């Protein structure tokens, strides 16, 4: 078994999945507002499968989307992390490593996603030496796009794409792609 993932920021801890995470994560993934930029809220079984998939990715790749909690109270906020996408149909920019986040509503608007994402970008570029990290979301997901821009990722509209796992006519099909490379990261980290 791999070592527990542990990244710390001023206010947050990112750590490996624990059994106690299932209930708050299932509640969060069942919330239609949290899941409004996804095809649908997740069932309890789908949430369990998502955690199992993340644990398998941690074993295989050494990183995954992991729980994020507050240092002060250990409150479960959601997840943030890096992942190698593994859709049945490839993304137009595969292979890649993506950074992503999903937080419960009470954690929105407090800078938690940006704070944890910056720690994961640092880990990706400075610890494991990735050349590029991407992030993508539905064109309508403006809150996530703001986080992507805030952490220094850039978007070229020519890279926008139809998500291969959605029907071309799905309202969520059009996705935007944000990128950040190691050289740009290093130039901003002086």
Describe what you observe in this structure.
With 190 residues, the protein is of the alpha+beta class. The protein has one domain: Gcn5-related N-acetyltransferase (GNAT) (Aminopeptidase, 3-Layer(aba) Sandwich). Helix content is 31%, strand content 24%. The protein is built from five helices and nine strands. A five-stranded antiparallel β-sheet has the order 1-2-3-4-5, sandwiched between helices. Strand 3 and strand 4 form a beta hairpin. Helix 1 packs across helix 2. The longest helix has 18 residues. It starts with 5 loop residues before the first strand and ends with a helix.
Summary?
The chain has 190 residues and is α+β, with helices and mostly antiparallel strands.
Keywords:
190 residues, 24% strand, 5 helices, 5-stranded antiparallel β-sheet, Aminopeptidase, alpha+beta, 4-stranded antiparallel β-sheet
List the helices and strands and how they pair.
Blueprint: E1 6-8, E2 12-15, H1 22-29, H2 44-61, E3 65-70, E4 76-83, E5 98-103, H3 112-127, E6 132-138, H4 142-150, E7 154-155, E8 161-162, E9 174-181, H5 182-188
Relative strand content: 15-25%
Rg, Å, rounded: 16 Å
> How is the CATH topology named?
Aminopeptidase
Count of structural domains? 1
Question: What spatial form do the alpha-carbon principal axes imply?
Answer: globular
Our measurement of the CA-to-CA distance between the termini, rounded to an integer number of angstroms, reads 36 Å
**Major sheet:** 5 strands, antiparallel
CATH class, named Alpha Beta
**SS summary, helix count:** 5
What is the N-to-C succession of helices and strands? EEHHEEEHEHEEEH
By oligomeric state, this entry counts as single chain
Order of strands side by side in the largest beta sheet? 1-2-3-4-5
GO cellular component, one term: ribosome
GO molecular function, one term: acyltransferase activity, transferring groups other than amino-acyl groups
Pfam family, one: Acetyltransf_3
Keywords: Ribonucleoprotein, Ribosomal protein, Transferase
